[in-house]
Structures are given as C-alpha cells and as structure tokens.
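Help wanted!
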Amino acid sequence: MPKALVMGSGGREHALAWRLAKDLGKENVWLHPGNGGTVYAGFPAFPAAKSPAEVVAAAKALGIDLIVIGPELLLAEGYSDHLREQGFPVCGASRFAAQLETSKVFAKEFMSRHNVPTAAFRVAKSPEELATILSTVKYPTVLKLSGLAAGKGVVLPNTREEALQFSDRVWQQNEFGPGPHEIVVEDVLPGTEISWIGLCYGKQFTPLPSATDYKRVFDGHKGPNTGGMGVISPSPYETPELAEKIRTQVVARVLEGLVQERIDYRGALYIGIMISPGGDPFVLEFNTRFGDPETQGTLPRVRGNFYEILLAVANGAAPEKLDVDPRTTIYVVAAAEGYPGNYRKGMEITDRGHDSADSWLFFSGVSFSDNRLKANGGRVLGSCGIASEKGLARDLAYRRLQEVTFEGRFFRTDIGNL
Ligand code: AMP
Ligand code: GLY
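Answered by r_m:
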C-alpha cells in the first residue's frame, strides 16, 4: 500500500490525513507534526524532524510516496521545492508560486497582467507615499499589508485618520516586524464573499466541493473576524451560472497567467471572491493552499481515490472533475474562551461520545499526554455531520459536538443558516 505524509498541525491537516486514510488505511498516513488529537485518533508517529533535511531523511526511511503540505508558512519557507528536489511527489505550491499568497503586491500585479477582475489598487512603499495616496482615495477604503500577517494585515478604514493609524502600526510601532513593508491600497468592493478552492496543476483547476466559511466569531455574523468558525458545503450561494462566470472570468485567466509566466503550480489554490451586486466575480485574494476549516467540511464529500487524485496533482496532472457526494456537510468549530484574542490553554477535553459514519471530530489545537487531551489552541476542535438534508447534517454535527466538553468552550450555533 502507498504511504502519504501530511505536513502541518491543524484541523485541515487532520481532515487531509483522515481522507487519505480512507484510501490507504490509517497505518499508511503520517502527519508532521500533526497535533495531540491526531495521535489520539491513531495516526502513526512521524519521527521528530526540525529541518527540511531531517524531514527528507525520515520520509525516505519510511518510504513515503506522496507529501501534502497544509500551511502557507511551510510553502513560504520553500518546503515544496526542497522536497521535490529530493524526488518526492509534493502537493503544495512552490515558494515562487506561493507569492500569490505571501505578497499581496505580487498577487495584484499578476492579476493586472492577466486581466483577472479585482479592485483597482495602488502600492505604497513608505508612510509618506501612503499619506499621499490616502489624500486622494474615497472612504471607506481597503489597506492590505503585502506580506503574511496571520489574518491581521487587512483593514477597512472609514476615514483618513483611521487609515493613518494602520500606517503607524506598520511603520512606527513595527507591529508586523521591522520591514521593509509595502501596503496595497484598494477600492472597497460591495457584495457577497465566496471561497473558490480547487486542485491546480497550472494548466487545470479542478474545483473542490463549494463551501461557505463563517468568519465572524459570534452568531449572526457578529464580533471580530476569525480563521473560520464553521462551514457548510455545498455553499448556499453557488449556482451553475456563477460557477460558469468564475470559470471563464477568473479561473481561465489565472491559469493562462500561470502558463504564460511558466509558474509550475501543483497544489490547492484558494481564490477568495467577492460577487458584485450585479453577479460578477472579483478576486479579493489568493491562498496557495487548502482552506481551514473549508477542508474539514468539503473533503468528506469527495468520492473516489483521493490519494490518486493528489498524487496526480503532485505529478503535474489532475482529473477534470471530482466525483462529489450530493449530501450536505456542516462543520462546527469549538473554540477556547478568548479566541480570536488571547485565549485560555490547558483545559482538559472530555469526550463522552464516539465518531460514526455520519458525525465525527477533527482536532486542531489539542495536546495529548498521559492519556489526556487538552486544549492548546484558539480553535480547538470541530465536529462534522453529513446527511441528505441540511437540518439533519446540522443536528448530527451539533449532537456530536455537545458530547465534547472543556472549560470555557464556545461555538456558533448558527452554522448552516445564511
Ligand atoms: P484578504 O486577506 O485580501 O482576503 O482580505 C481579508 C478580508 O477583507 C476579506 O475576506 C474581505 O472580507 C475583506 N476585503 C478584502 N479586500 C476587500 C475589498 N476590496 N472590498 C471589500 N472587502 C474586502
Ligand atoms: N478559512 C479561511 C482560510 O483558510 O484562509
């Protein structure tokens, strides 16, 4: 039986490993580093490895046939390139291609070159340049720090004063490190957001099942933005007409651009899209990876041999279409008190239930020692339910989640409602 390695430590990686285990058996799927929950779930332990060279040595010793990379940081560090040079098939964007996510300036200029619809923009390389631009724009406007900023690099200031506060945070208080920094200033786009995620190998983009991510921390879309508090798949906003517009107006131009610029893309590509009130798609951002928690909500609907599909992507090919389970999934995240701000850690997790074929857990921020599971992240774990009706999928997900408790736990109760 072939063997796969999933790199990363979140719920997304647990879901990738869980789905690969359906094809390969759990004993043939490793996670590095994974988390306490993936150890508890019974995946074998990958040897401790700190550098790319140590990962290579351990993967060679185990006879790994495919490596899937989850987080953007590993892509930005060039893990894909290094592992490919060592002969492994890797599903993960190269460091160069990952600039579509790690540099907003690179992404916007790429879109300009290839006529991909996106908001009009300008780039400021210093506080002085930004101040000048800010005197000419309409408010609210959008400011985006160009580099990776763990979800904290985008603001929508209502006034020039508010915009200048962001400039201070970046260039005076060095909140995002010493720099040099660049800030993209772009027009606000009205509309509804949708995440369009697919497997991409440069010449082809194979959409994964659609999903809507619930980004705000509290019910009714209230409170600050988070990495994502839950998912419904399929997305209630997806229509065949919209899918066709995204395919022709966005995806086809992105692929054309990748080919023209000889960017050999092999991995998941996540396109954040705003659907205008007139129904046209505009790109907000690219992520050069699978989404979290979208992956936990969508992979359970992917049928067929997922290992073979990812191996094909890694080898520079991809199926044209995935065979998708028509049922609905609902995935609900349980978070630690305080998230997305400073959150509590170390609370013991008690699970009084069991996973079944239609409801089960994925672990994100969890440690496991002395046979005890403890919370050690903001998003701790999540529960997935699958059923032919949305209401039933929701009942299944919430019922399973209620069986798992830890002090200060909270979750949204409206995942799956619009
Ligand atoms: P980004 O990391 O570029 O996706 O930005 C984070 C979030 O900011 C997006 O998910 C949107 O909710 C919002 N956003 C970004 N750009 C715009 C824009 N041009 N107009 C309106 N909202 C935006
Ligand atoms: N759920 C949003 C992301 O993965 O970036």
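OP: Thanks! One thing I noticed: Residues 213, 227-228, 287, 291-292, 294 surround glycine (ligand 2) (CB under 6 Å).
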